[in-house]
Amino acid sequence: MTDAVARIHAALTDAGVTGWLHALDIDSGEQLDAGADQPVCTASVHKLCLLVALHEQAARGALDLAEQVESVPEGRTAGPTGVAAMLDTARMSLRDLAYLMMAVSDNAAADLLLRRVGLDAVNATTDRLGLTRTRAVHSFGEMLATVKEDAGPEGARALADPRVVSRLRALDPARTNRSTPRDMTRLLGAVWRDESCAPEHGAAMRRIMGLQVWPHRLASGFPFDDVHVAGKTGSLPTLRNEVGVVEYPDGGRYAVAVFTRTAHTAATLPAADAVIGTAARIAVDALRARAFRSSR
């Protein structure tokens, strides 16, 4: 595993990012640690925690996933996708809001769900699952509001200035929604082993995560028709993350969490996106090679 860790760090460096990774063989427990316990800002990755809390409440009968919610344009959380980008009133079920939250990272859908579930319930869920370094401290709208406030009167244009970016509370794990790569693979393992909720809810969550539309990060490392990748991205200025599960046709299941930061403030950095898939592939290949050697 030492060689794989060195290759991961080299790939991250070549892409111009600093990164932290944890990979877990969901069934054997074998793991690869490349900064697994580093506190990180989760950004939209924290929507996975909200998804699990939503299904936990549904499993207990505290809410009905078919419950209808109305979203009006006034006061919607901002965002470029889903309900957040719509101009008119929308009405849909909690389960469909969860789909938009995970598949296209819809901020407005996430905050509608969070209003129904509650921040305390999200933290109670991660506590129950033993994710001791994972914490939600604000909604996604509140997180974006801190970015706007910290950027100052110049607004989004100021985010091209590294000095402005350096003061963003949303990029400080001590002051925003946070976790570690190891906590996130532990959460993914619980979802895939049906330990987080009843099996029917686990299946629903796995289905939704498999519908994510973004192929440019984790999935880019596994360009095969018979390998399935289910994940959740997270992005903020200089920050690119993804956590997910890679499933092989031979039954191998691997949870991977990759969190990265770069000094570059550009919103479009293809190499920084792609290295998430590269690093994940190196980690999964190492876990699979170890399993093969152990079986001989």
From TrEMBL:
Alphabetic keyword roster: Hydrolase
Pfam family, one: Beta-lactamase2
Domain (Beta-lactamase class A catalytic) ranges: 21-260
GO MF annotations in UniProt: hydrolase activity
Gene3D superfamilies, alphabetized: DD-peptidase/beta-lactamase superfamily
Keyword Metal-binding tagged: no
Designated name of the protein: Class A beta-lactamase-related serine hydrolase
Lineage: Bacteria, Bacillati, Actinomycetota, Actinomycetes, Kitasatosporales
